[in-house]
Amino acid sequence: MVDSPEDELEKLQKLRTELESRLAEIDEKREAEEENVKVLREKAAIRELEEKISEKQDALANLQIEKNELEDKLKAPNKNKPEDALKPSNKISIYEAIQKTKEEMENKKNNPETKKEEGKETESDETPEEKDSKKRLGFF
CA 30 to CA 28: how far, in whole Å? Predict the structure, then answer.
């Protein structure tokens, strides 16, 4: 059976409307994805900047610690040889100090023996210079 020209025209118009609708859907999805990509790019750029800031803050903190140690050594009576004052000491980044403190706290929380001894002070592995540096930086 052959469709009349009017029936064929109606079918073609319906098909055209359906195709235009699908095209509009695809365009909307594409635009939404483009916005998502823009957001993700911004987040990635922000993360990179945060990492750079963290690195620079660590470097600055290390310089401040070194400066304070050198100032302290220069103020103290000259008991050591002059070259000892210029040797770099064992430094850790702020991030490492925070991580170490978090680990110690977790160990205390998870270790039943330390729960019994909560009221007692525990000895630290830190040198007096590290303690002074942390106090100056406001850790304690």
Answer: 5
